[in-house]
Amino acid sequence: MSTGYVSVGWNRQKKWYDRVMLAGILIYLALFLGLSMMMHPNITAETALIRGFGSGALVLLHVILAMGPLCRLDNRFLPLLYNRRHMGVAMFVMGLAHATLAVVQFHGFSDLNPIVSIFVSNANYLSLTQFPFQPLGFFALTILFVMAATSHDFWLANLTAPVWKALHMLVYVAYALLIGHVVLGMIQAESSPLIAILTALGCLIISTLHIWAGSKEKQRDQELAGNGDWVDACSVDDIKESRARVVSIGGERVAIFKYNGKLSAVSNVCKHQNGPLGEGKIIDDCITCPWHGYQYKPEDGASPPPFKERVPTFNLRLKEGRIWVDPKPNAAGTRTEPQLIETENGDQHRDDSFYVGYMPKGPKPVMKRVRSFVVGAMGTGAAVAILFSLTMNPFPAAVFEFGEVREVQGYLKEHPHPHLLVERPGEQGTWSAWYLVNQGKFGAAEAVAPFANNWVSLKGSLIYRDDQTMVELAPGGVKLLKQQPAAPINPVIAGKTQTVRGEIVDSKCFFGVMNPGDLKVHKACAIRCIQGGIPPFLVQRLDDGNVMYYLLTGKDGKSINQEVIPYVAEPLEIKGIVFKKGDMAILEINPKNIKRVGR
């Protein structure tokens, strides 16, 4: 309602609020995605979008959580609170986009339900460093969904304000879960300390604002001492004209208003959304709630007809300039005789920068403070986008020719993992091994078995990184060649027992389908891929910056996919026999010889 008692429409203030919010979101995403693509040309679009939406949602959540305590500290921030629910829904949509892309990227295209995969792919729930961070994000998003779905006033009216408020206080649980999600996920995968610093700084700012505002509230809520049945609340001079002083009496906040030479007291809680009536103002002879403009007559706590909202009133006495309050509330809507006082001329018309959301335009001091905060918040968001995009770990030159189908010919071998021997251009008799996989998170063993040990022509998309090449087969893309020359000779170079230190990855993602395709952020996806038959590799990073690739097999070249799954995406030392088969470096191991080590 408004002072004219009409329903609140989609007014100028609401429209500008949403426009500025959307502009800030678009600026953040444009800066993050643009700079990420420019500074990291090898980053995949999916990775850039996942990180852009995720970081943007977290920045927006910090802004949302700062609004409440800022309004408690200074009423001039109230315009920010007016449409905070719109910002919460926008933040949820960004988080949902982040989660959807991540689930599709890391858990989709396998034989397991993606939601189930979130909880079972990484089961190291007893390990701090390897604790699965994705379930934390899932639970946080679930809470944010419930909050977004119940943000409309329909739910506020049907759940009642106390229940609705308690439900939406779960935002702090979601915030804690998201901080854990970030700390256990992205921070461990990035070498730059910037993300950790920004996350810690955000937590510090939110905690400080809430403690500061809570301290102010605690001082106001100190119980006042009484004399018999009456409580000495304050002096008449402590209250500004047309405003209130809020005191705590009998465990309840009471708002004492001074207006037109009179004093009246009502409960501080608005019937609409439990708004603080004591932070409101007398407008058109009615107490006006600062949150949404609901109004009550000060002498009886009732809304003017046709509205039926009512709040309890309190009896007052005036003795020698002191205001005494009877702590026993009257029934809601009960008329109490106002106490008469003397007022200074002109005081009641003083502009004290009061703002209510239905107003088409806020007072200049209020809007000046709001504009300063908005500019500061947008500048901070832009700075975070720039810093984060510039300081991400470098992305390797790993390529997936998605959507581009080539036709290649070679000799198809089934073991130790399906691969195609392709003669190197200009090097007759020298062969490169191109590993074969199916679409999604599946190996190609079943698809190529009928064609093994034959010359074939196949169609697929290339995946390559460094000197490693892979082909994702197109459906039905393998055909026998009519002419079958002698099989190529791919010599085996005997090796020796070695201990190699590195990380187990799924070769398809690491070679180029995802970038990055390693470390903890990729753990769940790597598990799904290796379980689906993608060749597992041990990646050894040398001190000179080079990388060694070892195809992992069991004794006699047998598949060892299932046995290595518990060790994926962890720093390891593996003892085994290293030998070469053509240009393939193979590490033949016994799973008992896998040892976890610190990074």
Characterization of the model:
The structure is a single chain. This protein is α+β, with helices and mostly antiparallel strands and 599 residues long. The chain folds into four domains: 239 residues; 109 residues, Rieske Iron-sulfur Protein (3-layer Sandwich), CATH 2.102.10; 83 residues, OB fold (Dihydrolipoamide Acetyltransferase, E2P) (Beta Barrel); 105 residues, OB fold (Dihydrolipoamide Acetyltransferase, E2P) (Beta Barrel), CATH 2.40.50. It is 37% helix and 25% strand. The chain has 16 helices and 23 strands. Strands 3, 4, 5, 9 and 12 form a five-stranded antiparallel β-sheet that branches. A five-stranded mixed beta barrel has the order 14-15-16-18-17. Helix 1 crosses helix 2 and helix 1 runs parallel beside helix 12. The longest helix has 29 residues. It is elongated. The two termini are 61 Å apart.
